[in-house]
Amino acid sequence: MAFIEILVNNLMGYDGVVLFTVASFNIIFWWLTRSSVKRLEDGLYKKVDKVLIKKNTAALIDTPSPEEADKLKRERDTTNRWYSIFTSIISIFPYLGILGTVYSLIGVAGDSGFDNMQDSFLIALTSTFWGVIFAIGFKVFGDAPLLPKVEQYNADVDRLLNRYENAEIDDMEE
Question: How confident is the model at residue 91 (pLDDT cuts 50, 70, 90)?
């Protein structure tokens, strides 16, 4: 069997079904994370543009309502939840490949004949290959563009909420 033929057949078989199913779910979680980041971006930076700081004080001229601060917190938490699920699924792909490899190697033990054993062993290794390819693909094309945005928005939301809390404390002290 040619190597490319084995790769394609493996992907069209049981391994492909499992990997494509998990990949489909991961695409959904990527989209949910991206949508949440977009909502957070729109809400956060519109709010930051309205915030004006008095000279030499921590008091805010435009102090947001507690509802607005809670909405930002909820959106940040939602973004983090979807992102966490997305990245967790990425780490599962190599394990799915290894599981396919072990499953195929069990079949190798029952094979008789050297040629059959070589093909079975090659099929087993392609499972790991596809698991790693899917993990790398999601990491490079899904996680790498999303991670800096998620981290930046988390820092910006925390910074903005800190300002709100400091403004409330300063108002109480006066």
Answer: very high
